[in-house]
Amino acid sequence: MIPTAQALAEITARLAAAGLESPRREARLLLAHALGVSAAGLLAMDEVDPDAYAAALARRAAREPLAYITGHKEFWGLDFLTSPATLIPRPDSETLVEAVLEAGAQPGRCLDLGTGTGCLLLATLSEHPSAFGIGVDIRPAATALARRNAQRLGLAHRAAFLAGRWASALAGPFDLVLANPPYIESQAIAGLMPEVARHEPAAALDGGADGLAAYRAIIADLPRILAPEGLAVLELGAGQAHMVSAMARRAGFTPALKADLSGIERAILLRFRK
Fold this sequence. Notes:
With 274 residues, this protein is of the alpha/beta class. 40% of the residues lie in helices and 22% in strands. The chain has two domains: 2-62; 72-272, Vaccinia Virus protein VP39 (Rossmann fold, 3-Layer(aba) Sandwich). It has eleven helices and eleven strands. The longest helix is centred in the first third of the chain and has 14 residues, at 4-17. The N and C termini lie far apart (69 Å).
């Protein structure tokens, strides 16, 4: 056993040496998880056993994402289970949920393409008590995880999850279509931070040679699946707003953009052109 303060200092030093940006904060989260206590509970502990956190520390020092180690990530104030089968929910993606609320949409039927953990769909359903949603992902392990998240959040009766490629198996119409598609250029993936390049699923990252392959597929299918007065909200990568907007206009949509907290145009809102 060693003093808790010493354990935190040693974990922080090792995470800092591994190149992490917030080693002290992550040290607290990792140690609390390894010991099965809350952050407040950690403060009440005088001593800890180094063997209790050695494995988790080794994984994080090797740049495995903390959310895969703990198995949880907060999104829109909700706790989501995570796994290497899906992207980890990111605060930037909350911009899409905000965009739906600001647009005044009152969806009855929602569709989330590339649902992953289900975070976009389930956060949206939590804000619209009368809505029902379907989440689609090409990976069955992802849809299984999203289904578990719906159950844990008390939303299973208002959500269904299917394995498939985009909306090819669905007829619509949907009042709201959400998507956080893969938008990283194929050749750029290897240069991403190790947590992403080495651990997150390539299929959820790789947007093809120009990063726009998924947008082409989704926007081409929107006229078939989106209700006449419906709204589609898609996440954008940095610098993609102009290209995706042009694509949407050619398909008959009027686009609008919403920036995230960093000022990056993160969401594109599409409605049929009047």
